[in-house]
Amino acid sequence: MLRWIEGHLARSVLIALAVAFLIYEVSALGFAYSADAFVTTDVVVVAPEVAGRILALPVRENDRVAPGAPLLTIEPTPYRLALASAAASLELAKRQQDLGVEAVEEAEAGIASAQAVAADAGAVLDRERSLLRSADVAEQRVDDARRDLAVAEANLRRATAAALSAQRAVQVRAAEVGVAAAARDRSQYELDRTQLLAPAGGRIAAFEARIGHWLEAGQAVMALVTDANWHVVANVTERHLGRIAVGQRAWVMLGSDPWRPHAGRVRSIAPAIARSDAPAGVMPYVPPQTDWVRLPRRFPVEIEVPGLAADIPAFRGGNARVVILH
Question: How much of the chain, in percent, has pLDDT values that exceed 70?
Fold first, then answer.
C-alpha cells in the first residue's frame, strides 16, 4: 500500500482531497459548525433626559444593581426653582380666572339691571301714549319717554356685550390655567428626571463619568448589561439554513469557559441579512470576508443556553464555538 502511494503520489493526494471533500459534504447533513459565534445580551444605554452637573454617582464599574436602583443624580436645584416658578404662575393664572368669573357675575347683574330699566321705560312710554290719545299729556312727554326707552335699550345692549366679553375672558383665563398647569407638570417631570434609576437588573459596564461632570440631555453616560436575554449568536453559512430549525439541539463552547461543552437549543434563525453595511439598517450585516478571504454568506442563528451568565461564566461580546445537530 505504501509502495503504491509512493509510486502514485499525485493520485494519492487527489484521492485524499476527494475523500476529505466527501466527508465535509456528508457532515453537513448531520450538523452545522460555526466558529464565528459570540455571547450577547440586552444592553441599556443610560442617558439623562435633562442637562446638569452630576451631584451623586453611587455606582461603580461592575456593580450589580436591581431594577429601580439609583445610578446617578443631576443637580436638582435649578429644576426645583423652575418648579416653584411654574407653580406660582399656575396659582396666579387660577386667581386671574377667579377674577374673570367674578367679572362675568357682575356683567350678568348689569344685564338684569339694564333689563329692568328698559322694561320700566317701555311701560312709561306705553302709559304716556295712552294719555296722549286722551289729550291728558303733552306730546313732549311721549318724546321724552321714547328717548328714555332708547337709552335703556342701548344700555342693555352694552351690558350684554360686556357680559359676553367677560365670558370670553374667562375662557382665555381657563386656557392660561391649562398652559400654566402643563408648564408646572413639565417642571415636575424634569425635576423627577434628575435622578436616573436602573431600568432593569444587571451589571454596570465601564464608564468615565465622575461627580461634577456636566451632562447634556440625551448624552450617554453608562451602559447597563442586563441579566435578561443572555444567548449565543452563531453566524452560520447559508448552506446549512435549510436543515436548521427552531428547537434543534446545539452544543456551545465559550471562550470564557473553554473545553466545556454546554447544551443549548436553537431559539431563532434570522430570515434576512443586509447585503451592505452602508447605510446602517435594522437588519443584521455579517461581513462576507476576513482579512483577505471571501467567505460564504452567513446568517445569525440565536442559541439559548440555560444558565448562561447565571451559572456559566459568560461575558457579552466573548467568543464561542457552536455545533448544531440536525
Answer: 74
Mean pLDDT of 284-308: 77
Residue owning grid cell 447565571: 310
Structural domains of the chain sorted by starting position, each given as residue range(s) with its CATH number in brackets: 31-43+227-325 (2.40.30.170), 46-76+194-225 (2.40.50.100), 77-192 (1.10.287.620)
Burial tier of 249 (Cβ tally within 10 Å: 0-12, 13-18, 19+): middle
Rounded to an integer, what distance in angstroms lies between the CA atom of residue 245 and that of residue 228?
23
Cβ neighbors of 96 (< 8 A, separation 6 or more) are 173, 176
What are the pLDDT digits (tens) for 42-67? 999 999 999 999 999 999 998 999 99
User: How far is Cα 73 from Cα 56, in angstroms, rounded to an integer?
Assistant: 5
Claim: this prediction has a pTM higher than 0.85: no
Q: Report yes or no: 224 and 203 within 8 Å, Cβ to Cβ.
A: yes
Helical H segments across the chain, by residue range: 2-7, 9-27, 77-133, 139-192
Number of Cβ atoms within 10 Å of the Cβ of 259: 6
Burial of 24 (0-12, 13-18, 19+ CB in 10 A): exposed
Phi/psi for 200 (5° steps) reads: -160, 165
The DSSP symbol for 252 reads E
pLDDT at 200: 92
Predicted pLDDT at 165:
82
Burial class (CB in 10 A: 0-12, 13-18, 19+), 167: middle
